[in-house]
Specification:
121 residues, mainly beta, 7-stranded mixed beta sheet, 4-stranded antiparallel beta sheet, elongated
Amino acid sequence: QVHVVESGGGLVQAGGSLRLSCTASGSIFNIIAMGWYRQAPGKQRELVAQITSEQTTNYAASVEGRFTIHRENGLNTVHLEMNSLEPEDTAVYYCHVMAQVTPTRAPRQYWGQGTQVTVSS
């Protein structure tokens, strides 16, 4: 079983910054990628940022240049630094982990419980 725990989030004014953190724990053989998705009211869940085991990063166009994702060396922890926040960034942010629990099992997706980010104008 893989557990995904998020921290951070909260309320901030437009132009401000927040940091989200996520840690995966449990019976993990290999983490292929970790990242963040978000879902605003009435909208579909969308990818915000992702980092692979090779440290390759991928960002949504709407956050490129404002958000940075990085993984702590040797740890199953990622951080999302969010700068120049806009009201449009308001959403529930979910940590996403793609991992194998054994060498022979196919990778599976695991999700955190979500953390609210609210940006006031």
